[in-house]
Amino acid sequence: MKPAMRLFSSLAAMSFAFTLAGCGGGISGAQAMTSAEGSQHGDFGPPQGEPIHAVLTSPPHVPPPTHRKAPAKVIVDLEVIEKEMPISEGVTYTFWTFGGTVPGSFIRIRQGDTVEFHLKNNPNNKMPHNIDLHGVTGPGGGAASSFTAPGHESQFTFKALNQGIYVYHCATAPVGMHVANGMYGLILIEPPEGLPAVDHEYYVMQGDFYTTGKYREKGAQPFDMEKAIDEKPTYVLFNGAEGALTGDKALSAKTNETVRLFVGNGGPNLVSSFHVIGEIFDRVQQEGGTHPQENVQTTLIPAGGAAIVQFHTEVPGSYVLVDHSIFRAFNKGALAILKVDGAENKAIYSGKEVDSVYLGDRAGPNLAAVSHATSAAASGKLTKEDQVKAGAQLFSGTCSVCHQANGAGLAGVFPPLAKSDLIAADPKRPIQILLRGLNGKVTVNGKDYNSVMPPMSQLNDDEVANIVTYVLNSWDNPGGQVTAEEVAKVRAAPAPAPAAGH
Amino acid sequence: MPWLRLLGNLWLVLAIGAGHAVAADYKQIAGGHFASVLPADEKAADMQVAPYELRVTPVSNAEFLAFVTKSTEWQRDRIARVFADAQYLSHWITSDGIDRAQRDQPVTHVSWFAAQAFCESEGARLPTWLEWEFAAAADTARKDARADPAWREQILSWYSRPSNSALAAVGGPANVYGIRDLHGLVWEWVDDFNALLVSTDSRDQNDPDRLKFCGAGAMSLRDLNNYAVLMRIAMLSSLKAADTTANVGFRCTKIGAGEKS
Amino acid sequence: MIRHKLMRAVAFLLVLLGTSAFALPPATQSNKLPSDSIYQLNLHLVDQGGKAFELRSLRGEPVFIAMFYASCKYTCPLIIEEIKRTVQALDEADRNRVRVLLVSFDPARDTPAALTAVSVEHHVNLAHWTLARTDPTGVRKLAAILGVQYRAMTNGDFNHSTMITLLDQEGRIAAKSDKTSALDSELIAAVGRTLAGQNP
After folding, report:
1. What does the DSSP 8-state code read for residue C40?
2. Does residue A312 contact residue A345 with C-beta atoms inside 8 Å?
3. Going by DSSP bridges, is the β-strand pair A335-341/A251-254 parallel, antiparallel, or unpaired?
4. Measured between CB atoms, which of B80, B81, B194 is closest to C143?
5. Cβ <8 Å between B239 and A174
6. Partner B contacted by C161 (CB < 8 A)
7. B208 with B216: CB under 8 angstroms?
8. Residue B211 pLDDT more than 50?
């Protein structure tokens, strides 16, 4: 971490320490807190000043910090709208939404605020709805007091006693279906001192979706209850649609900036293994809790939970947000992009520097000739001598097992290669034999052999050419040279009918 | 010419009135053994549904118009606010006039009180939840299709369609009892809509808050997999007797039959 | 529009010609009831002494109204005691200006005798308290208009929500309470406002 970040995080840590100490009773500058139990220490007294209408934003945007120093009365107006929207290219789904989007509008208030919550159910909707905010202390999180029929509005009031990032969702029966249709969002209850400033704040929320059609099957897709109960999603998505945060809708930042992501998981079923490819989270408030963890690669976000992750950008590029249960990212759509623009920084990340040949287990010193031949061939300077030398090394590794190092073969079993009349009759025939193998009766140097030689399919064209060149130039064989191109032609030609032994 | 058009409208109004003189179609349902999603008592016992007569289709705008034409205290500009909210019959052109296209559509934006009054005018009442559920468990071939995932899926797909398109006319395909439009058209009032006793927060089904609901807790629902029925119960539980919405209509049951609620 | 007016005239003619017999009797036209008064409901009741009366006969004074049944063992006794405590908490002058109406969910079993037994058991002042029953349809309508939920069980008990409603002199709902374990100060305050003629 850069020195500035380190100082910053110590300052942040100190401010958290102050907040904690405040629970024990009386620190100067802190709000009126006594040694109250649990959430009660977030009760900063009655609201002050005129009521404020909360600024709600659509994803991926986050409302600006409240910059408040005292508890206020905040009025939140949220409307439920049932609407058909694309879930993937050419695929639509009837979503039930808070504020017309999936996830629903982002609500930002401060700890100690009194919220007067208005939930409206659009008269064109078919279903009753309510809301459970995980940041509410009270029965059902507000659900009991907000059950609303279409064309009606409900109101209830709560005090935000706990700071943190909280999920809200509809809790009308059947709850699973309401959540699966996209009825969730996030509410941020700022700590009294506010969150440290960053360059960008974004709102990302993962959800699993269940359709009767298959993944990317076109048309209007209905909800599939059986799949939802079996927890077998069709789509796993960030912000309610494939491509919601890719292409020209990708999140953006510049190099050398701090990015904070409020990441929620509406579920209904899956837990997320949230990871940003190419970045490490400098700071994670796991499960949205107050004490941060640092240097985290992948963080778990429970269904019905959220986390705050923060990182500093160093190097430009496209950083992919994924659920690292990786088939969800590549086969169900759990993929989003953060595009970072700016100057390269080769000291941090250089990009690809060298692309060289790697020969695996043949890269040892006794195969130097083979490496030499390979690079010579690559540069077009391959000589017969190079080929013979390389072929010799390859022969000893591959062929001498059966045909012996001196090419003598094994009487009655493996035919000889030394001074072979079969080779003399057709010097190109070894190419065929190496590529396709040899079955059945052959007569070499007056003796019959009836064995099976398998095709040497592990050899490439260069290797075949080098081995055959070596054999042709050894043990009184006719000589000559075979090129890789010739081998390639033979390989490409259709296999001849199995020849009768001659 | 205006007087000619007036005569035409007069004819329309007369025709509507005349239409209502024909008795609405009711069909006898024999009843029988039935596993309701809302059991009568905590032991989730099956119930015996007594024979009853159920209206074949939901009440249409034309039929309801004929009713308020006779019982003018149920017209939207005269009704007491305690019996219906401000959206009552808001989709009608006037308090006693409808569009030609609306004639055969199921009447909506009606409150429970208005629906009851209509049924009483036919010598009937709203069906109980059990009577409605019994008839609605059937499909075109079977008396009880509720275990069939395809049946549930079909109903669910209606719920997931947005309701911004015009309502279809009443008179869809009949189920095995000869009753039409129990699914896929509108939600329907029942007589004991306020007996469903589902907590407004549907997750505390078994909350033993004895002081909230006398008689050992709120109702437990059987068969939580049957989302189609659960959603209907949720919808009815969200309504108060004077509420009207764009998607709630009703039909009637002839008095003298049916399980006592 | 002229056409609209003529249409209304024609409709009116039709009403005159084709009035059917069953139409609900009109609400009292003299000193008109407010549109949101529950006394708009025609409800015929019989009290614990066997005397018949109309719901709207209670018009003129604030009323605590609740629903119960005689064989109820859980909350109904608590509801009755809560109302008694609430009345007792009022100023002495106000206590006599408030009426109480308890209506049974269970007309089949709650005969006038059964209702009288309840009134005796709880030592209620029958000068101000009425325990009554109506027909099953009336029970459903009264519960609907008050927002009370109830359901009959197979063993004869009733599953029902807890609610005490305060009606003002004109029958409008002035306050509601579901508290039975402690005095509801909001409810008491509402009585004061109602008696003073202020709308809550």
Report:
1. G
2. no
3. parallel
4. B194
5. no
6. yes
7. yes
8. no
Cβ-Cβ contacts under 8 Å for A42 (sequence gap 6 or more): A111, A112, A160, A161, A162, A163
Residue C18 has pLDDT above 70, yes or no: no
Minimum CA–CA partner of C22 in chain B: B121
The tokens for B74 are: 């149920």
Q: What are the residue boundaries of the structural domains of chain C, listed by start?
A: 2-22+37-195
Q: What angle do CA A36, B207, C173 make, to 5 degrees?
A: 85
Contact (CB, 8 A) for C3 and B5: yes
Q: Is A451 within 8 Å of A411 (Cβ atoms)?
A: no
Residue A85 has a pLDDT of 95
The H or E element containing residue B121 is helix B112-121
CATH for C2-22+37-195, among 2.40.50.320, 3.40.50.300, 3.40.30.10, 1.10.240.10? 3.40.30.10
The more confident residue out of B213 and C182 is C182
CA atoms of A194 and A260, how far apart (whole Å): 14
Integer Cα distance of A491 and A494 in angstroms: 8
From CA A276, how far away is CA C198, in angstroms rounded? 62
Please give the residue of chain B at the shortest CA–CA distance from A143. Answer: B201
ipTM: 0.80
* pLDDT score at B216: 33
Q: With the CA atoms of A137, A139, A140 and A144 taken in that order, what torsion angle do they form, in degrees rounded to the nearest 10?
A: -130
At residue C139, what are phi and psi to the nearest 5 degrees?
-60, -50
DSSP state of B220: P
User: What's the average model confidence in pLDDT over C59-80?
Assistant: 91
d(CA A114, CA A156) in angstroms, rounded, equals 11
- State yes or no: cis peptide before A103, omega within 30 of 0: yes
Helix (H) or strand (E) run with residue B227 in it: helix B227-237
β partners of residue B209: none
Structure-token match 């409206």, residue found: A120
CB B107 within 8 A of CB B61: yes
Residue type, B68: V
* CA nearest to C138, candidates B219, B189, B79, B120: B120
Binary contact (C145, B45; C-beta < 8 A): no
Distances (CA, A) of B43 to A163, A452, B196: 44, 78, 16
Residue from B37, B110, B194 to probe the interface with C (highest C Cβ count within 10 Å): B194
Amino acid identity of residue B256, one-letter, is G
> Residue C182 above 70 pLDDT?
yes
By CB neighbour count within 10 A (0-12 exposed, 13-18 middle, 19+ buried), where does A364 fall?
exposed
> Is B140 within 8 Å of chain A by CB?
no
- For B214-258, how does the pLDDT look when each residue is reduced to its tens digit (9 = 90+)? 433 334 566 666 777 778 888 888 899 999 999 999 999 996 544
Residues 176-235 of B with CB under 8 A from A: 198-204, 221, 224-225, 227, 230-231, 233-235
- Residues contacting residue A306 through CB under 8 Å, at least 6 positions apart: A165, A166, A167, A186, A205, A262, A263, A264, A265, A287, A288
DSSP state of A144: G
What pLDDT, on the 0 to 100 scale, is given for residue A477?
Answer: 92
Mean pLDDT per 10-residue segment, chain A (502 residues): 45 34 30 58 88 96 95 97 94 96 97 95 92 85 83 93 94 90 97 96 98 92 92 97 91 96 96 95 92 95 97 93 92 92 81 62 59 78 87 83 86 89 92 90 90 84 92 92 92 70 42
Task: Give, for A273, the enclosing helix (H) or strand (E).
Answer: strand A272-277
Q: Tell me: the pLDDT tens digits for C121-174?
A: 999 999 999 999 999 999 999 999 999 988 887 778 888 888 999 999 999 999
* Pair B248, B188: CB distance under 8 Å: yes
Full-model pTM? 0.68
Q: How many CB atoms lie within 10 A of CB A410?
A: 13
